[in-house]
Structures are given as structure tokens and as C-alpha cells.
Amino acid sequence: MAPPSVTIIEEGRITVPPAAALSEPALFKLSPLDAQWITLPLIQRVLVFDAGAGAAIPPFESVVASLRASLAETVARLLPLARRIVFLPSSGEAAIDCSEGGVAGGVRFVVAECGDADAARVAGDADHDVGLMERLVPVLDADALPAETMAAQVTRLGGGVAVGVALHHAVVDGRSVWRFFEAWAAACRGGDAWSAAPGLMFDRAAVALPGGEELARTVLRVHAPNLPVATVPKFLVEDRLKLSRRTFTVASAQIHRLKQRIAGALMASPLPSSFVALSALAWVSFVRSKNSAGAIAADDEVYLFFFIDCRGRRAAFDPPVEDNFFGTCISGCLAVATARDLLSDDGLVTAAAAVQGEVRRAAEDPLAGWDWMSLLSRISLHRLVNMAGSTRLPAYEAADFGWGPPSRTELVTMNHDGQVVLVAAKCGGGVQASVSLHPAHMDAFKSHFESY
């Protein structure tokens, strides 16, 4: 069935004055951690507000006006989101141009409507309407440098409204995405998001890996050899549309029982983190669902990949990158096991021990996996679970624009068969886990995931 059509009502630009205050250099050369993302998919996230669930949504015209005005105020403080990524051919580098010349028209702001889509259904369905969600977020002009770093879209739905954004992953990581939403929502509510917070830092020089600018140039030559062309590989765009997606909400009590089960078997104290427990559960469920379908054999090696935030870690950078760094500051981690071990009765415990071991290793040497693209190129991706996000990301709490938190928030760009996106759930200390899988494996995954 074709998804409901979305009609563009208006498409314009939110301009930011060239003289917006900036106490740092106006040209931020991408670090090696940024540079790996130049030709990878965007971050596209949608927030759905359902009036029937209690959201006190103003008239649509008022929603649009307040979102537009508050976004202008927000990106004036977060200039990398209002500028462009440019190519510097003389040096082979890429940079975020925050100078007056980098304005280039401002942030694209789209107003749309989709009266055939019911906000309550979109917010309530466990299975994603992928075709519709793709239409509720904007795209970026990012196939070549100079490339946009952000766009926004607000769409009128039946009984509600959707707010969608597209952000370039070379400019923000998960921590920065939610810092942006928190600031935008506070500005929309009429509060001052900046009065009590330290000034944000944008200069990528703080992410000082050995090799410096030459290392960043090397990363670009390896992973984006055709610059200024920066087209996302076609298979990443086409394959994600073939995947089935489903969202699970794991209550706080369920997570606690899962932790106790793992800790009891390991005879360990304290309890494992929520991230470790849910990663182990997702990994085992993935392996069992694929094994039952014949896609993974018992003797196969299987993997779980995740990122760690390197802010504040002296073992990564000295001096450490401060918490107020607004950019990309993440490094990769890879847990490895055999499918046979995860298929056993003690599979959950084995998985948790492997994930916990990788967390401990990463604490000692956070940057061991900084070149995560090269790491993943050496393994079989169809046997990989890609854990994204964090159990602590305030996806609902941070996004109250003045009419209550969203009824549903999802990452639209889930690109991998075996990707799991974690955020804090809307209520009660639970966790939302959104999963993308081959359609033939989703029901078995659900059965295993919910059986614990």
C-alpha cells in the first residue's frame, strides 16, 4: 500500500545574520572523527505530537511561526547548523565554514501537510510506516561540497503535527543532536536555554588525535576519495527501504529483572548497566532469529558494534574534550562472540560479559576504535548488530516545544539489517529500542526479545 502523500505548502530559508557572535575561528577543519561521516547517511529524526494523547497543540499556523522563530534564535547560537561544509582543494581538507561567506541562504525550513495520516496511529503503531516517516523529514543538499548541515520540516497531520529534522553526521553526534533539540524546544517555550549553560565549543582542534590535520586528510582520501563529490553509497539508501522496523518499549522493572538475571549468573556486583543488559538481549535475539532462518550458522562469529562518547575522557584526549563540545566526538567498540555461545542457555550472560568487557576496554583506551569504518570493513555485516544511541538520551524530555513532549520520536535513517536505536522512553525510566531487520526475521526477533 502506498503511504499517504505529503504536500509541500511552503519551502523557505531561515536566515542567520552573518555577524552572529562567534568567539572561535570562523573555519572549523573537520577532525578525523568528523571526516568519516562525509559520505554516510544523514541523521533524520521525526517527532510526532498527538493532540488526542494530551498534547495542547496550538493552531498549525502558530506552531509554524513559533518553530520558525525559535529555530532562527537557536541556530544563531549553534552556527555550524546554519552554515555549510566546504572542501579546501589546496590542502585536501574539509571544514565547516562559519564565516560571513558561509551563510549561503540559511537553514531550509519546509512546511507541509498530510491530512490522510493520523497522528495517533503514527505515534501508536509498533511497526513503522517507513514510507510515511521518510516523507515527514527533510533531505539535505549534501551530495557534493559545499553541503548543507541542517534542514527542518513541520507537517500537519490528522489530529497532530510532526517535526522532522535532517542533520549532517559530520557536524553532530547523538549527544549534540539532543543538545540542539533541548535548546530549540526551550527557545520555542520562551525560555532562555543559554543562561545557565556554559558556552558551547565548536572548534574541532579540541579533538586532537595524533597526526592532526594530516590524519584528517588521510581519512578523507580513504573514505571520500572523490571530493568535492560526497554522494552516499547507493546501497545504504536503497537497502534501508527494504527493512522492517519495529519499536519496543522496555519498562524499568523489566530492565531491572534483566540486570539481576545477568548479575546473578555472573556472580557480579554491581548490576550491569541498562545499556549492557539491553545490548546483550538484542544481540542474542538477533542471532537466534537469524539462526532459525538459516542466515547464521552455529560456528559463525557474530558481532555487536556501538559507539562511546569520548568527551571528558582523559584517556582519550589530554586535556580532555569538554562536555560542552558541540560536534562529533565518538569512537567505535566491537564485541565478538561465536553464535554457538549466544544460542546456548547461557547466551544472554555470555553476550553481556562480552559487551561489558568491551566497555571496560574502551574506558582504558577510548580511541582504539576511532577508525571504526576500517574496523567494520573487515567483518561480515550480515552477522552484526549495530547499537546506536544511548539509554540516557532524553528523546522525549528534551523535545517539549511548549505543548507537551512528543508521543513518538524515531530515527528515520536506520540503514542496517540489525540496527538497534536506544533512547530514554517517554515515561517511568524505561528505554525505547527501535529495531531494523530483514522482514523475514522480525517476528522471531520479537519473540526472543520479549521472552526475557
Automatic annotation (TrEMBL):
<dbReference type="Pfam" id="PF02458">
    <property type="entry name" value="Transferase"/>
</dbReference>
<keyword id="KW-0808">Transferase</keyword>
<keyword id="KW-0012">Acyltransferase</keyword>
<dbReference type="InterPro" id="IPR051504">
    <property type="entry name" value="Plant_metabolite_acyltrans"/>
</dbReference>
<dbReference type="GO" id="GO:0050734">
    <property type="term" value="F:hydroxycinnamoyltransferase activity"/>
</dbReference>
<dbReference type="InterPro" id="IPR023213">
    <property type="entry name" value="CAT-like_dom_sf"/>
</dbReference>
<protein>
    <recommendedName>
        <fullName>Anthocyanin 5-aromatic acyltransferase</fullName>
    </recommendedName>
</protein>
